[in-house]
Design goal:
By secondary structure, the chain is α+β, with helices and mostly antiparallel strands. It has two domains: about 50 residues, no CATH class; about 325 residues, Outer membrane efflux proteins (OEP), CATH 1.20.1600.10. About 65% of the residues lie in helices and about 10% in strands. The chain has a four-stranded antiparallel beta sheet. Helix 6 packs antiparallel against helix 8 and helix 11 runs antiparallel to helix 12. The N terminus is likely disordered.
Length: about 475
């Protein structure tokens, strides 16, 4: 009975709940019907939980992805790049705020002040009591009812404000350069992963060909052994070679899948998205001359630009710290009403509208060496920025030279690897013919197979080496995809 119920609950998804309950209502007890209904009610959730295990193929992209498209997709989702872009925006707004502090500020000020009037003394005369009730109890205030409605224009003139604006301007430029550094680092990562996927796919093809070659050779040795033309040791050696090639094929497939996932993490919201790449691995870009690379590196390198702007920022920071020794001038102009009535004219006909101007000169005298300490702090940061600038310049020169030599050597090796692969393929063909004729040993065939597979894998590595070196060289010179 329980087995019948289990079979029927599994069939609910195709036959329907009501048909099942009706069919077995007469032969199943009431409590079993309740259990069956509960199980069937939970069954869709069970199917839903198991759906990922038996889910169909993952979504795929419509068109092959070029390197430029891969970079664009990575820029939209990379956290480090988005953080650098946010820092650039914030630095630009800080510069705008500092510029606003240098300009006159305008405020329309409205205020009502009520002050308790002076209470008359019981011992005073009536005339004095009448007069005293119109005076405020606080002598600093003007009257019991005071209305203030004025437009105020204020301006502070000082060296510190100008230096602070210059400092924030330099920091904004440095943030923009750091964003470009982050972008170029992201581009280098995408280039490495992009061509890494192409390389692993190419190596997977090589591993599949090597496995097929080993399979054919194993079958050949078995046929020759059947004709008593070779010893059984040749069959054993061929089978060992076939087993190793199958393991290499499995490793190549795993490496290809891992490389695809690493790139998909940068490009898609779902890393399991299926995609194809448009750029071919065997189509290297033309390497520019060393003079062009050096000129572009000195002009377009964001690391150098960021270091230059950081040095400028610390220089202006030092100027702002020294400006604390100098006086500041503040100017203010007020126009409006400050009277006992909220009106243009007073009860006696006089005008309440008027203006006033204030000029203030603040001269620093003593602050317990706080300004002196700030100046020393800024001077230390300025010295560090100069050291970082020179270090960046040295590193740029060394990196340009290193990457250019790397790309040049890889480009030269690509042509030689083409010849090596052709020679290894011809050697394998001739060795197999000699083995079939009984003029070569099984070890020579296995060695020729290994040499051919190694030559193809090395050719793929050389292509990736060139593409990666060329991409890193582009990140230093600014000629990005």
């Amino acid at each position: 009975m329980l087995n019948t119920l289990q079979d029927q609950m599994i069939a609910v998804s195709s036959s329907g709940v009501f048909r099942t309950v009706t069919r077995y209502r007469s032969c199943v007890p009431r409590f079993s019907l309740l259990a069956c209904a509960a199980a069937m009610a939970l069954h869709p959730w069970t199917l839903r939980a198991q759906a990922p295990v038996n889910s169909p193929a993952q979504p795929a992209t419509d068109a092959p992805i070029t390197l430029e498209e891969a970079i664009r997709r990575a820029e939209a989702s990379d956290v480090a790049y988005r953080t650098a872009a946010t820092d650039k925006t914030v630095a630009g707004l800080d510069r705008s705020i500092a510029r606003s502090a240098l300009l006159p500020g305008v405020v329309y000020h409205n205020q009502y002040i009520y002050t308790q009037p002076v209470q008359p003394s019981p011992h005073s005369t009536n005339s004095l009591n009448t007069t005293s009730t119109s005076a405020p109890i606080f002598i600093a205030n003007n009257t019991v009812h005071e209305y203030i409605s004025q437009g105020a224009v204020t301006e502070t003139i000082g060296v510190a404000g100008v230096a602070n604006y210059r400092r924030l301007s330099a920091e904004a430029e440095a943030s923009a350069a750091r964003q470009e550094v982050a972008r170029r680092g992201l581009v280098a990562t995408v280039i490495g992963n992009y061509f890494g996927v192409l390389a692993t796919e190419k190596k997977l093809v090589v591993a599949q060909r090597s496995t097929d070659e080993a399979q054919q050779f194993s079958e050949l040795t078995q046929k020759l052994e059947s004709g008593r033309e070779v010893a059984h040791a040749d069959v054993v050696k061929a089978n060992l070679q076939l087993q190793q090639r199958r393991r290499d094929l499995a490793d190549a497939g795993l490496a290809a899948e891992k490389a695809r996932l690493d790139l998909a993490v940068l490009l898609f919201p779902n890393p399991l998205t299926q995609y194809t790449l448009a750029t071919a691995l065997d189509q290297p870009s033309v390497l520019p001359t060393k003079a062009e690379v050096q000129a572009d590196g000195a002009k377009n390198n964001p690391d150098l630009r960021a270091a230059l702007q950081a040095a400028r920022a610390t220089k202006f920071e030092l100027t702002a710290a020294k400006a604390a020794y100098l006086p500041d001038v503040s100017l203010a102009y007020f126009y409006g009403i400050d009277a006992a009535q909220f009106a243009v004219k007073a009860p006696d006909g006089s005008r309440n509208l008027g203006y006033s101007a204030v000029a203030t000169l603040d001269i620093p005298v003593w602050d317990w060496f706080a300004t002196h300490s700030r100046v020393k702090q800024s001077a230390a940061r300025n010295d560090l920025a100069k050291v970082e600038l020179t270090a960046t310049q040295r590193q740029l020169v060394a990196s340009l030279e290193e990457l250019y030599n790397e790309a040049a050597v890889a480009a030269d090796q690509l042509a030689s690897f083409d010849e090596t692969v052709r020679t290894a393929a011809e050697s394998l063909r001739l060795t197999k013919l000699r083995y079939t004729a009984g003029e070569a040993t099984v070890l020579e065939v296995v060695d020729a197979q290994t040499s051919y597979s190694a030559a193809q894998a090395a050719q793929v590595d050389a292509a990736v080496r060139y593409h990666v070196a060329f991409g890193q060289l582009q990140t230093l010179t600014g000629r990005l995809p």
